[in-house]
Design goal:
Layout: E1 37-40, E2 47-49, E3 53-61, E4 70-78, E5 81-84, E6 97-99, E7 115-123, E8 130-140, E9 145-156
Length: about 160
Amino acid sequence: MVALRVVVCFAVLAASAVATNVRQCPGKSIENLSDNVQLSPCQKPPCKLKKGTDQSITINFTPETDIKDVVNKVSADVAGINLPFVGVDGNSICDKIFTESGEKASCPVKAGTKYTYKDSFPVYAFYPSLKVKVHWALSNADTKSDFMCFEVPAQIA
């Protein structure tokens, strides 16, 4: 599995940006993980996901190998069952990547280069109101291997 060294890219974050306290995925150990993930509006878990609104995300990452296409793998653990987040899971992020200096980038991403992924996603009204554990990974589309991953408790309301 491709390892990843995550780095802090303050230059591309807004001055008011606050990191979100996220957890390592089982079996992973990404240095300074919480410093490199921002869910908005959410500074500390559980994140409140209000139905009918959009949630924003910013992830700073530096791949250790060249990757042709990067996709999201996003699911919610509901009572031990992983359900994909409709509209987010499986989507390419290549059109939502920026360089350390804030310039628009795209895939392929290059080893050793600092990138920032910025996106927003809908919290659909049809989602049930409940507590979930969100599992979010950035994955190499070709090898299907995650190179960045975190988990965060959330409350869909």
